[in-house]
Every structure is written in C-alpha cells, then in structure tokens.
Specification:
α8 packs antiparallel against α9 and α9 crosses α10. The radius of gyration is 17 Å and the shape is globular. The longest helix is centred in the first third of the chain and has 17 residues. α6 links the parallel β4 and β5. It contains 10 helices and 6 strands. It has a 6-stranded parallel sheet with strand order 3-2-1-4-5-6, sandwiched between helices. It has 210 residues and is an alpha/beta fold.
Length: 210
C-alpha cells in the first residue's frame, strides 16, 4: 500500500497557528457568520490538542486595540499566553517565528482573522521558506466576502492548500480504528460539526451498541 504520509496531513508532522481571533477583528468580519467562524476555530483548537499537535496562539495589539484572544480558545489551552505582536504579518514577528521553528514541523495549518491580511500574508511568506501551508478557511473570516475570496485565490496560486477544519481533524484521524483518539474525535464532532454531530448523537441513541 502506498505511504500517504508525505502528501496528507499527519499529527506527527503538523503544527497549527491561530491568528488574531480577537473581538476587534470579529467586529469587522462580513464574509461568514461570526458564530460559525468561532465554532470552527474552537473545533480546530480542540482537535490540535487531542492529537498532540503544537498549537501556537498569536494576537495583534491585544492590550491597545484588538482585545484578548477569545475565551473559548484560551479555555482549550489554559495558562498559555498568546504571542502578542505589532506586525500585521505574524511571520515577521521573531517570537512567533521562533515558536514555529521550535516545533520542527513543516506542515502548518493556519486559521485567522482577517483572511486577506493576517492569514494571507504569513501563508505566502512561509510558502517562500519551504513550509507547506494549509489554510483552514472556514475558521477564517474576511472584512468582506470579496476580500476573503480574493485572498483565497491569491494563496492558492502561491501554493497554499485550502481546507476546512473538520477535514483537518479527520485527516489526522485517518482510520476509525485509531482508538486512542476515536472518542475525542466523536466528542469534538458532536460539539462543533453541526449536522454531522447531530447524526452521531442520533446513531448513539437509536442504533444498538456494538
């Protein structure tokens, strides 16, 4: 059987960066429902923790303009202080760059606000330095739908791989026989995967236990 380790996401090779999920940034998001974006990024954060994937949190001007990272993400990583920056491009911040380099991972999943700035700029910059970048686009939001869409087009042309947060988690899971993470994946799905989560709850209630 072909070894897919090099072409699919694997927990042992992945890291996650969550960028600027802060109140001030959410206020201006118009490309999708703010509640949906929040739900999706929290699902991604929980998935990274479940699979032991390093997750780097970063904010911009948290104390002077944008506010703290949303509590639902911080609750997933209690005691972790997000890296606060002044740079729009988080890859230009030396503390964040160091944090990424220390993971030793080259497959980086990124989600942030806004898509056209705080996701697009670091994604393209990291691609130029031989990282593989996977943008969890349903955990991102732009100031307008057009801005989000144009950013996605630009990133894809630069080599960024577009994904959804649930796709990331299930690619890490890969096989339902991976029992160490099975229950955790089901729990995250029930909390954050909308209709799929409802389907899991239904099957647990209605179908005989195996």
């Amino acid at each position: 059987m072909r070894n897919y380790q090099n072409c699919l996401l694997d927990p042992e090779q992945s890291a996650v960066i969550i960028v600027d999920h802060q109140p001030q940034m959410y206020f201006s998001v118009e490309s999708a429902s703010r509640q949906t974006i929040e739900n999706n990024v929290v699902g991604l954060a929980k998935a990274a923790k479940l699979f032991g994937v390093p997750c780097i949190l970063t904010t911009v001007a948290a104390k002077t303009f944008s506010g703290p990272m949303i509590k639902k993400i911080l609750d997933v990583y209690p005691g972790e202080e997000p890296i606060d920056r002044t740079s729009l491009n988080c890859w230009e911040d030396q503390n964040l760059r160091k944090a990424v380099e220390e993971t030793g991972r080259k497959k980086i999943v990124i989600a942030g606000l806004w898509t056209e700035v705080c996701v697009c700029l670091p994604a393209i910059s990291m691609i130029s330095e031989q990282y593989e970048i996977y943008a969890a686009l349903d955990a991102c939001g732009g100031s307008t739908s057009e801005a989000h869409d144009m950013a996605v087009q630009r990133m894809v042309k630069a080599g960024v791989k577009p994904m959804a947060w649930l796709q990331v988690m299930l690619e890490w899971q890969r096989d339902w026989n991976n029992k160490e993470t099975y229950d955790g994946v089901m729990s995250i799905c029930k909390e954050h995967a909308s209709a799929y989560g409802l389907g899991i709850e239904y099957s647990e209630e209605m179908l005989p236990k195996q």
